[in-house]
Amino acid sequence: SNNLTQCNIESLDAWCLIDFEDRSANPLSANYEVGLYLNGSLLENVTIPNTITEIKSQAFTGQKILSITIPNSVTSIKAFAFLFCVRVSSIEIPSSVTSIGFQAFAGMPIGAVTLPKSTTVLYGNPFAACPTITSIRVEDGICN
Questions:
Q1: Are 57 and 101 within 8 A, CB to CB?
Q2: Torsion sign across C-alpha atoms 144, 71, 57, 120
């Protein structure tokens, strides 16, 4: 087993630019008790910097995050980006997002989610294993 409990970073911008080849490449995936610490403080309320256009695969997997704010600079959310963020109960996807990756939000206890009409590409169920999801609304339409 892995005893890692903290992953310390000095810049959220820099973290968001890392391309993790797979889950084993991301220290946060060592176990789900690993916290992401920004300059010594546990990162619980994540605001993605507005310099970021793509939330990379695995970026925040299995985290102790309580909330996530995604800016309008983001156009792509890659596979497993927020996999098993089990403390995040709602997510707002900005109208800038055009593609959402495989199981990007899987395992999150969200209730309802709205996909902006800008979203034209969805890869394999982004909301798989979300135990509490009640509806997925697509702007200018609805599918339950």
A1: yes
A2: positive
Residue 126 DSSP one-character state:
T
Q: Would you say 44 and 66 are in contact if contact means Cβ atoms under 8 Å apart?
A: yes
Helix locations, 12-139, DSSP H = 12-16
- Residue 1 is predicted with a pLDDT of 52
State the CB neighbour count (10 A cutoff) for residue 63: 25
pLDDT at 91 (0 to 100): 94
Q: Is 88 in contact with 82 (CB distance < 8 Å)?
A: yes
Sheet of strand 35-38, all strands in order from the earlier edge strand to the far edge: 6-9, 35-38, 41-42
How many beta carbons lie within 10 A of that of residue 52, not counting itself?
19
- Other C-beta atoms within 10 Å of 4: how many? 13
Split the chain (144 residues) into runs of 10 and give each run's mean pLDDT. 84 95 84 87 95 95 90 96 92 95 94 91 90 87 52
Distance (Å, whole) CA 6 – CA 20: 18
Q: Whole-angstrom Cα distance, residue 61 to residue 23?
A: 8
Query: So what's the pLDDT on residue 144?
Result: 47
